Amino acid sequence: MFTVTLSTPSGQTVTVNFSTSDGTAHAGSDYVSSSGTVTFAPGETSKSITVAVNGDLTDEPDETFDVTLSNPTNATLADGSGAGMITDDDNAPPISDASRMYISVHSGAASIQKGYRDEDVIAFGRDERGDVLEGSVVKFFDGSLYFKSNEQLDAVEVIDWDGDPEMELIFSVRSKANIKMEGLEIRPGDLILYNPSSTPKFTRFLDGSKVFEDYKNFCEKNRENIDGVALYQMGGGWKIALTATNKAKIGTLEFDKDDIVQVDYNPATKGAGNPVRLLDAATLFKGKQANLDAIEVVDDDHNGTFESIVFSTSGSEKLKDGRQVKPSVIYLYNRETDTVEELFDPKSDGLSKNSVQIGSVSTLGPLKPWGTGPRPDPAAKKAKKGQALLAKVGEGETQTPEAVPEAFGLDQSYPNPFNPSTTIRYGLPEASNVSLVVYSILGQQVRMLVSGAQGAGYHTVVWDGRDEAGRMAAMGVYIYRLQAGTFSQVKKMILAK
Fold this sequence. Notes:
CATH architecture of the largest domain: 6 Propeller
Number of helices: 1
Number of domains: 3
Structural class: mainly beta
Largest sheet: 5 strands, antiparallel
CATH class of the largest domain: Mainly Beta
Distance between the termini: 42 Å
CATH topology of the largest domain: Neuraminidase
Radius of gyration: 27 Å
Strand order of the largest sheet: 3-2-5-6-30
């Protein structure tokens, strides 16, 4: 809300026009553009202008816009403009961001929160230092509704499979006998898709009998299973990375327990083939064969190859360099540098009171080890998003980025292909006037995502797949162009089914 005042009461009717204009905030996405006339009746000295602000769940810098007065009657302008600040109050990044993590645990869930059990899937957000954000821990999947005490949730992957706003869960189950979930028989070697908004909620996602050689002995008789899973798009198709609970064979590829193998997934047949070994666990661990439990593969720079693998182990293992890894910690292995770093410790990073045994992990987006930057200061949040603060021109707050790139750069959007939304990240080594525009393959402008001055640092923006009029864009190839001062860079992205 903006306040317009007269210095003294007037015996005449006083009017003045007003209009809003963008600063770092943008009309439509951040606030509602407004214009009109303010009228003071004789004797009145104060009037208000209300500008609606669009709230969202995106963690972003505070943003500004302007209100300008013009064409006064029966008065003169002493100060014809005011700056509104939209102050961000979103501590947790959106669910599609890399700082959102999902885990299941094989033991110790009760120490996370009262009422949690070991076969639940738990979601939480993390701050810049990797600590769990206060109030962000939620039960994503309630295992108590479906599992008995002797049934174990094994592999877990969280993904937006059907393109709606709700995330789906892909999982395997380890049990002594086949079980049923809402009439669906759950067998070893299968992956199950759980979609809470569909009927039925559970469907078979991967048919193990179409994947594993000697399925009858391996899965049905010996009850061996998929132990870890990751699902992703690459080369125009879907891939599954998996580990097995024992030595297994897919096609002609034989692999040891806890080697990570990638297969091409066929949604139509629910089968998979063309196996490729992503990781030979024997090259990473020392001595006896390791017991990889949770896995996730990460394409940090979105170039179609995997630089990193997230994992946990079901027992204490030794790496080749002699360091001990613990089943209560999630690690990040960089394949390019051949190094292992601790990624997340539920106890020391604020998720649980005691150590827990990690069963599965799923992350969304590019994931890198967290640094040691300053913790976010809740006291610095001046007002909730959805409110505007009036300030004189030249006044306001600035944000100093925690990291400043050495050069301008535009990242590949992630995910790509995407539906319905994708995130674009870019870096500014210095404050610049920035425009980021989405074009059709024919060069027609589809959506202006960013227009205005921005400070040095890394910035992200989400395109929701809609044009300037709010209509969903057609499927196909799109171009996005970053212009920052004299720097310009163009990349492509694909809006898929």
